[in-house]
Amino acid sequence: MADAAPHRVAILVYDGVTLLDVAGPGEVFKEANRFGADYRIVLLSPTGADITSNLGVRIAVDGAVSSETAFGTLVVAGSDLYPRTRVPADLADAARTPAALAGRVASICTGAFVLAAAGLLDGKRATTHWKVAHELAARCPTCRVEPDAIYVRDGSMYTSAGVTAGIDLALALVEEDHGAGLARDVARALVVYMQRAGGQSQFSAPLQGPPPRSSALRKITDLVTANPCGDHSLGELAKHLNVSTRHLTRLFHDELSTTPARYVEIIRFDMARALLDQGHTATQAAALAGFPSYESMRRVFARKLSISPAAYQRRFSTTRRANAGQVASDRGQTQAG
């Protein structure tokens, strides 16, 4: 049931803000109004001056943060500027002041860096885009950053992952306010998932950490990378260096913070993802990547991505095959007609 009074949503914007971080959640709240909600959206900047987005699009704002009183929801949009540089003090202040009066505070993507600079994430759980999660953790050491989450709620504080995850978060806020039925109507109208399966890992690039410092361990990692299908048991890998299995395990722990078995699994997992992206079947990908069986690969995908290899492929393999199937279908219907 809609609230008797309008629910005011303030979106904090500033020069360089990511346009989709503003438009995505805004569209969710606006669409919710068509189904009975009553959200009143205002765009605010630190000074009240209009701003320019990351795409060069000018955004007319409704006023300054200081000109408004309390909101039901404060949304802080992100920008690719502030993972690369420090958040200006005036922008941090512009988030801190209304956050104290808002019923709840949310950040979209790297908007979490603004919240962190304002001290609003201290001691809380949070997330941001997977590419810069490590930087957020470094800037806010008391914050528990969850790099794989699509969005995180900690009390009245909500943070979301990269860009389109702001739509996921906005849908969750609508559901919190008006129930699953209305939120589902909004999701259907916008042609998006009500709740996306899996975490951010399914969108991240293959894990490519720094090379080992020692030439001995680099020899092993190069061997595994060059031939994921080989016999890379702990004993066999230790034989290549003529060292004990204990010593090899210590090398992996000290230089890569993992075990030999986990490293082999990571390489095979990355190879399997690339093969699925190229259009190989899941069974083919498992064999070519060196997994003992499809089932063993499926367990790794479930653990790392929370989705199956087939589900991953449906989302991320080339669209050409799907489009070709649609063209063939359309051609068949035309001929039949």
Descriptive overview:
The protein is α/β, with parallel strands linked by helices and 337 residues long. It has 14 helices and eleven strands. The chain has helices at 19-33, 89-99, 111-117, 133-139, 165-178, 180-190, 215-226, 234-241, 245-256, 260-277, 282-289, 294-305, 309-316, 320-336; strands at residues 7-12, 39-45, 51-52, 58-59, 63-64, 73-76, 104-107, 125-126, 144-145, 151-154, 157-160. It has a seven-stranded mixed beta sheet with strand order 5-2-1-6-7-11-10, sandwiched between helices. A two-stranded antiparallel ribbon has the order 3-4. Strand 1 (7-12), helix 1 (19-33) and strand 2 (39-45) form a beta-alpha-beta unit. Residues 318-337 have low confidence and may be disordered.
Mean pLDDT across every amino acid position:
86
Strand order within the widest beta sheet: 5-2-1-6-7-11-10
Structural class by SSE content: alpha/beta
The DSSP helix count reads 14
The profile of the biggest β sheet is: 7 strands, mixed
Q: What is the percentage of strand-forming residues?
A: 5-15%
Helix content: 40-55%
What best-fitting shape do the alpha-carbon axes yield? elongated
Order of helices and strands: EHEEEEEHEHEHEEEHHHHHHHHHH
Which residue ranges are poorly predicted, with pLDDT under 50 across at least 5 consecutive positions?
318-337
Rg, rounded, reads: 24 Å
User: Can you count the beta strands?
Assistant: 11
Report how far the terminal alpha carbons are from each other: 48 Å
